[in-house]
Amino acid sequence: MSREQLVVQRARKSFQTGNTRRLEYRIHQLKGLLRFITERQKDIADSVKRDLGKSEHATDLFETVGLEGEIKLAIEKLAEWAAPRPVEKNLLTLLDEVYIQPEPLGVVLIIGAWNYPWAITLQPLVGAIAAGNAAVIKPSEVSSHSAKVMEELLPQYLDKDLYPVVTGGVSETQELLKQRFDHIFYTGNSTVGKLVMGAAARHLTPVTLELGGKNPCYIDKNCDLTIACRRITWGKFVNCGQTCIAPDYILCEPSIQDRVVEEIKKSIKEFYTDNPKTFEDYGRIINQRHFKRVMALMEGSTVAVGGESDESQCYIAPTVLKDVKETSKVMKEEIFGPLLPIITVSNVDEAIQFINEREKPLVVYVFTHDNKLIKRVRDETSSGGLLANDCLIHFTVSALPFGGVGNSGMGCYHGKHSFEQLSHLRSCLITQLKLEGVNSMRYPPHTAKKLSWARFFLLKQVNVCRLRRMALLAIFTGLAAFLVQRFLRRG
Ligand code: NAD
User: Fold this and answer.
1) Which residues are catalytic?
2) Does residue 481 belong to any structural domain of this protein?
């Protein structure tokens, strides 16, 4: 029996003990996870520094603060999320209990990616624990230092059997994918996403695929270009452009292209100094393979800003490419690195057409003062999310479902959405063995009269809350009338 098989078997056995059905147990585990990220902050930051050259504060800001918020929210809201949810009834079920009961799915496989190795791997885990599942955690082998720290330290804070960490590369992931899971939560590129979905199909296992794509960013010529470009510079070059929701390319009219270049250049200098290579808040490309891939994407395009690189350090400067053609290499795949191409379009119609001719992205960005334009872009394009006049921050709003559509993924998470995604929403109807007479309309022999009664009972939706409110109102009105009458009589 392979190690992966054993781990999954152990997780399933632990799940079957029923411990995770108890909310106190889940909260205890969530508190363990919270303790892990607070007590082991330094180990986490060191590992990310070694993987991606990121500073400690940047790791706090982009990896653990969000995680902390998600865990605290889950602890606070768990009782509410897990409670039975009464639904509207029809006349036939008026006297019954009819509700949705969220229940755990079983054993979840979480496959993480390397670009934010902690946030991306542990945020789905928050949902898995909250929903009462066991979870096998597979961090990306590409961010090897983070994976090692996760494997060594996480089991000291969580139930080892229920939430095991499995490290290893493609072959280990493939071995895991042969096992039967109750849900697979994968973050990574679309090519592997298809393999994951194929493997899941063999067991009819549902999947969440958090994928990537090319996120367009349209800048309206009448907007405040200084602020817009400052925000775009931040969103693009944070983590060296290795962010799934980074703006991939800019669309703007030719008349503002040079100003956009100048403003971005100014912001790069403001954020990362004249020499980003020696500045601690500018990271590195994850490895030589990705370094070569990103460098190759620059071929054939005009560098307007940056362009410098150092292979020995996997360093690529924040780079802006101008007058980029849609046939250029850099437009053929998700960049996932610090290159920002600008493509000129004659107006917003052309920008919308450009976006719609391509795969649905994870996010569409639009910068403008014009609310009508924002609504137009929202209504005439499709993407996982839409963000106007800023970058990345929709990721921080736990109430927004985070995920893609079409080629950028399926399913979503964050906050309550993670809980829902990793729960089964079970339909429950509890009736009594009484009032059998009412049921005669559904028993044979079927007649026209019975059918008309059935239509009446089945097609009438009853909003119980409204009914209750109306009943209360009637009682209050009656009471008021009674009191007024007595008062008048005395007078
Ligand atoms: P990666 O190389 O770390 O791969 C992700 C996982 O897939 C790893 O755990 C790896 O073991 C596994 N894997 C790789 N090849 C495999 C194979 N042939 N069979 C089975 N498993 C395999 O990460 P990546 O794909 O380079 O990540 C970058 C991509 O992820 C980008 O496209 C980015 O946009 C996307 N991403 C999306 C989100 C999101 O939330 N939507 C977040 C981060 C990254």
Assistant:
1) 210, 244
2) no
Provide the residue range defining the domain that includes 312.
216-403
148/88 same-domain check: yes
- Give the count of domains, the chain: 3
Question: Measured from the CB, is residue 142 less than 6 Å from ligand 1?
Answer: yes
pLDDT, one tens digit per residue, over 201-248 is 999 999 999 999 999 999 999 999 999 999 999 999 999 999 999 999
Same domain? 15 vs 151: yes
The pLDDT tens digits of the residues spanning 145-188 come to 999 999 999 999 999 999 999 999 999 999 999 999 999 999 99
> Strand pairing of 363-367 and 216-219?
parallel
| 197 and 135 belong to one structural domain | yes
- pLDDT tens track for 29-50: 999 999 999 999 999 999 999 9
- Substitution site in 120, 167, 192, 245 for ligand 1 pocket (most atoms within 8 Å of beta carbon): 192
Model pLDDT, residue 194: 97
Distances in Å between the Cα of 386 and the Cα atoms of 290, 376, 383, 464 are 28, 12, 7, 36
How far apart are the C-alpha atoms of 302 and 295, rounded to whole Å? 13
Same domain, yes or no: 159 and 244? no
> Is the CB–ligand 1 distance for residue 195 below 6 Å?
yes
Residue linked to tokens 């949902």: 127
Neighbour count for residue 479 (Cβ, 10 Å): 10
Instruction: Return the CATH number at 25.
Output: 3.40.605.10
* Residue 397, in any domain of the structure: yes
Identify which of 299, 352, 350 has the alpha carbon closest to the alpha carbon of residue 321. 299
Residues 36 and 180 reside in one and the same domain: yes
> Mutation test of ligand 1: which of 67, 178, 211 has the most ligand atoms closer than 8 Å to its C-beta?
211
- Structure pTM? 0.93
User: Largest Cα–Cα distance in the chain?
Assistant: 98
Task: For residues 139 and 110, give the distance between their C-alpha atoms in angstroms, rounded to a whole number.
Answer: 8
